[in-house]
Every structure is written in C-alpha cells, then in structure tokens.
C-alpha cells in the first residue's frame, strides 16, 4: 500500500513539474504579455515607436525604455530588465560584450546613422585654423569611429591597420596641430560652442535639432557602422524576437525611415 501511495505521489509531482516546464517554454519572452525594448532617445526611439504601432496591429505589445547613454541599455538587457535593445553599432556592441563580460548576441541589422563633423564657427573643415580644438566622443568605439572620420576629412592620418580601435595616441600625422578633446557623446551637441568643431553621432545631433545632411561640415562616407538588435543568448531563437525583427525590417518601417529622416538615417537590411 505504501509503495502504491509513493508511486502515485511521485507521478503527480512529475506531472506538475512537466506542466510548469512546458508553460515556461511556451510563454518565452512574452510571459508578461509584452516585449520590453531599450533604445536611446532620438531617431532610434522614433523608429521603435513606429515598430510598436505596427506590432500592436499584430497583437504584440512593445514597451519602450529610453536611455540617454550607450552603456545602460546593454547592462539592463544583460540583467534581464529588458527583452532586447536596438541602439548600437556592431563594433561598440562587441567592445561592450568583451569589456563587461556580457552574454548578448546580435540577431539582426537595423539602420545606419552617418557620423558628422559640426561647427558653429566654420562651414568647411578646410577653414579650421591651426591648433583648433576638436571634440569627439569619449567611449572607445565611437572615439575610434570619430578619428576615422577625421582621417576621411583630411584632418589627420592614423597609424595603419587599427580601424575603430584607434585612439588619439595613434595619430601619426597632425599637420595643423589640432587639439582633440574627448567628451560624453550625448553632451557634445550642447558643448559645440565651446570647441571649434566636433564629431557627433547622428542620433544625438538630430535629438539636438541638427540635420546631418545639411548642418554637418563633413559627413561619414560609405559607413559600415550598421546598428543592430541585441538579445540575451538564451532568447535568440524566441518566436517573439523573430516577430519583432520581421516588423522592424518591414516595408512600412523602411518607408517611415526614408520619409522621416530624408537620408540622415539609412536602412541597413
């Protein structure tokens, strides 16, 4: 009798555990009924608002969480406070993953924001005076990107082969003795009047009312810095993630980007 009773209890316990496991697997990221997506303020947020609108029509609720910096969206995603994020280039993403030991993966490309050089004092990079102070982002990846931009503009020459990993210490030639000042990416538009020129990420430039194609005195040529959608490794095959990607890379979103940003933001898929 005891053996029969024990067997019955064990069977019930296994059934309960199996039911719980099956429920978690089925619900996935939509366990709470919505996807929580991290973005930076400005164009990324605008695009995601359109994605959310289209997603709602398909029965997918998206909650946007806006950030004013480049670090916290990845930290929040890694810690489970977000389901995915959409705001960063692949070189920056790789750097963050390595530096902070994050277990995040890229699942899709989104858009490209050409970085530009801006100035309140000159209208052409050729008019910058000897010894001019030039601002650039302080985070490693965007700093390297800005230095490559300065090289494209003919302001400096970098040591060969470093690419986005270049730092101000890797400037091989600086014939006009420019002084390079590293500043917080999000704050550069507000500090533009304090330097002679500065490299600004387009999302922050546009957030400050600047139009990259019109207001920059030099803009990135043939950019390979496509932004991406990132998730935790464990969620890369989640059905909700694929649904989100399909909506983001839809013709409706492509049209929205083209009409809204007029070339200042370019689709990268």
From TrEMBL:
Keyword tags: Lipoprotein, Membrane, Palmitate, Signal
UniProt keyword Lipid biosynthesis present: no
Localization per Swiss-Prot or TrEMBL: Membrane
Signal peptide: 1-18
Entry-linked CDD domains: PBP2_lipoprotein_MetQ_like
Signal as UniProt keyword: yes
GO cellular component, one term: membrane
Top-level taxon: Bacteria
Membrane protein topology class: Lipid-anchor
Pfam families given in the database record: Lipoprotein_9 (PF03180)
Covalent lipid sites (S-diacylglycerol cysteine): 20
Protein family membership: Belongs to the nlpA lipoprotein family.
Family annotation (NCBIfam families): MetQ/NlpA family lipoprotein
Protein's UniProt name: Lipoprotein
Species of origin: Oceanobacillus polygoni
Top-level taxonomy: Bacteria, Bacillati, Bacillota, Bacilli, Bacillales
């Amino acid at each position: 009798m005891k053996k029969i009773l024990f067997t019955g209890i064990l069977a019930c316990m296994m059934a309960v555990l199996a039911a719980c496991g099956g429920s978690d697997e089925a619900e996935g990221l939509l366990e709470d009924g919505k996807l929580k997506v991290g973005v930076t303020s400005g164009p990324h947020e605008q695009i995601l608002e359109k994605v959310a609108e289209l997603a709602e029509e398909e029965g997918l609720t998206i909650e946007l969480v806006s950030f004013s910096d480049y670090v916290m969206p990845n930290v929040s995603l890694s810690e489970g406070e977000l389901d995915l994020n959409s705001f960063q280039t692949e070189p920056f993403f790789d750097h963050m993953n390595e530096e902070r030991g994050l277990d995040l993966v890229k699942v899709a490309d989104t858009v490209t924001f050409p970085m530009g050089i801006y100035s309140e004092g000159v209208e052409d990079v050729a008019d910058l005076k000897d010894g001019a102070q030039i601002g650039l982002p302080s985070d490693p990846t965007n700093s390297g990107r800005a230095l490559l931009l300065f090289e494209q503009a003919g302001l400096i020459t970098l040591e060969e082969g470093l690419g986005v990993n270049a730092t101000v210490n890797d400037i091989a030639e600086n014939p006009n003795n420019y002084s390079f000042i590293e500043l917080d990416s999000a704050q550069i538009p507000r500090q533009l009047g304090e330097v002679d020129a500065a490299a600004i990420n387009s999302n922050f430039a546009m957030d400050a009312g600047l139009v990259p194609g019109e207001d920059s005195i030099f803009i990135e040529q043939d950019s390979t810095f496509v932004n991406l959608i990132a998730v935790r490794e464990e969620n890369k095959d989640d059905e909700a993630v694929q649904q989100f990607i399909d909506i983001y890379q839809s013709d409706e979103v492509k049209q929205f980007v083209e009409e809204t940003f007029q070339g200042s933001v370019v689709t990268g898929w």
